[in-house]
Amino acid sequence: MTKIQSYLLGLLACVAIAGLIALFICRNRIYVWTLGDVPALYAKAVNHYKAKEFQEALPLFEKLAGIDSAAYSKFLLGDMYYRGLGMDSADYKKALELFLESAEQNNTDAHNNLGVMYLSGHGVQPDYYKAFRHFQYGAANGNAQAQVGLGTMYRHGWGTARNSSTAFDWYRKAAAHGNVDGMNNLGYMYASGFGRMMSAESALYWYQKAAAKNHPKAMYNIGALYAEGRGVERDLVKCAEWLNKAALLGEVTAQFNLANMYYLGKGVERDLDKAAMWYSLAKEQGHRNAGRFLKHLEDHQDILELDSNFTIRLIPER
Predict the structure, then answer these.
(1) How far apart are CA 268 and CA 291, in angstroms?
(2) What are the backbone dihedrals phi and psi of residue 178, each rounded to the nearest 5 degrees, phi first?
(3) Does the CA dihedral 155-160-162-165 come out positive or negative?
(4) Which residues contact 267 (CB under 8 A, 6 or more apart)?
(5) What contacts 244, CB < 8 A, 6 or more positions away?
(6) For residue 219, what are the contacts with CB-CB under 8 A and spacing of at least 6?
(7) Alpha carbon of residue 257 to chain centroid
């Protein structure tokens, strides 16, 4: 081989390498070009998602998530995998990958969902430190749901030192953004005296604000205040009315306690058929006592003393 041939081969090799590098650098632009009208494709995917037409939305978001900068599309696709929307079952591993990619591009919704995954152990080993860091990033950048998550970490002392006052402040920030979980949790903090002086009146105020936005736990908690006579005159009829509203929205604790009210005839006329119905619905959602109570009822065994006092506990979001 002559020197000229060697030179030409080397030059061709350099050109080929340069072409591959250029192709790699431009691959995202090329991919976007193959998709055509990306804004129209995104709008179509979002419309299907909002209409809960998840099987139609899924393949569109799969295409959009291939764009390097499509942080929100990756988040929405991750959400679909996380909740099993448009598919046979959830895929936590795929959801985690997509949330991580979206979070790397500073998407605060993705950071919030990563916080939830690391807190709950869905698809990952539970890791309070990682959960705290993801909630912290989202909360610091104005994500109201992450602010609720961060408040909960402080309330329990998960991944950080327990601090009820700081938890209260984060719930208040979330509520100021209109977040109903933040409103409900502010009510819980006031009712329990965590982070602030105990105030049943303030608790009722925040529960009512959340309930006005159809928050089922807040509705249940208003019922609990009526059951206890805290901030309001004790009224089991109104308690049953609020529990019924929450139960119809699928709140499992409300379903179980409403079943107890029908069994005992507290605040409602005693009705064992309705008691069985609400126990059954609570059982389907995994309430730990509902199945046992339902079996006792079906076997005509006593569940609770009919003259017992009826009390229920307040619940926060998380």
Answers:
(1) 22
(2) 85, 10
(3) negative
(4) 235, 236, 237, 238, 239, 240, 261, 310
(5) 254, 258
(6) 207, 211, 242, 243, 245, 246, 249, 251, 254
(7) 23
Question: What is the C-alpha to C-alpha distance for residues 271 and 248, in angstroms, rounded to an integer?
Answer: 17
CB atoms within 10 A of CB 298: 12
Which pLDDT belongs to residue 11? 53
Rounded to two decimals, the pTM is: 0.85
HSE-up of residue 186 (Cα within 13 Å, Cβ side): 25
Query: Radius of gyration over alpha carbons of the chain, in Å?
Result: 27
Give the span between the Cα atoms of 259 and 277, in whole angstroms: 8
Which amino acid, one-letter code, is at 160? T
Residue-level pLDDT at 23: 43
pLDDT one-digit tens code per residue, 182-236: 999 999 999 999 999 999 999 999 999 999 999 999 999 999 999 999 999 999 9
Q: Is 273 exposed, middle or buried (0-12, 13-18, 19+ CB in 10 A)?
A: exposed
Q: How many CA atoms lie within 13 A of 85 on its CB side?
A: 20
| DSSP label of 249 | T
Q: What's the Cα-to-Cα distance from 16 to each of 11, 21, 27, 85, rounded to whole Å? A: 9, 9, 16, 44
Using CA atoms, how far apart are residues 218 and 155, in angstroms rounded to an integer?
18
If one counts every other C-beta atom within 10 angstroms of the C-beta of residue 16, the result is 10
* Residue matched to tokens 């205040």: 225
| DSSP codes of every residue in 30-82 | HHHHHH--HHHHHHHHHHHHHTT-HHHHHHHHHHHTTSTT-HHHHHHHHHHHH
Where helices occur in the chain by DSSP H, the ranges are 3-35, 38-50, 54-64, 71-83, 92-104, 108-120, 128-140, 144-156, 164-176, 180-192, 200-211, 216-228, 236-248, 252-264, 272-284, 290-298
- Measured CA to CA, the distance from residue 35 to residue 222 in angstroms comes to 51
Task: Return the closest-CA partner of residue 96 out of 120, 132, 60.
Answer: 120
